[in-house]
Write a structure and sequence with these properties.
- By secondary structure, the chain is mostly helical.
- It is built from 4 helices and no strands.
- The protein has one domain.
- The longest helix has 19 residues.
- It is globular, with a radius of gyration of 12 Å.
Length: 76
């Protein structure tokens, strides 16, 4: 049985991997989110990602902000 913590870790790793692939840090992500009208501080983003417990809305906002058009969900 997969726990909620396992799911949170997976989601956190997916978003962090996409940021790393694009060379985008939390400061730049905050700036890009602001352009979309999503006010998030660099520290708030860091807190959300360290917890891993953020909403699907926040995930999609981040993916849109970094122009991620496809997300690979496989664990391979």
């Amino acid at each position: 049985m997969v726990t909620d913590e396992t799911w949170k870790t997976r989601v956190r790793q997916l978003l962090k991997a996409e940021l790393t692939r694009r060379g985008i840090g939390y400061k730049e992500l905050a700036a890009r989110l602001a352009v979309l009208g999503v006010p998030e501080s660099e520290q708030n983003i860091a807190n959300k990602l360290s917890r891993g417990g953020f909403s699907a809305v926040f995930l999609i906002q981040c993916l849109d902000a970094i122009e991620c058009k496809a997300l690979r969900l496989g664990m391979d």
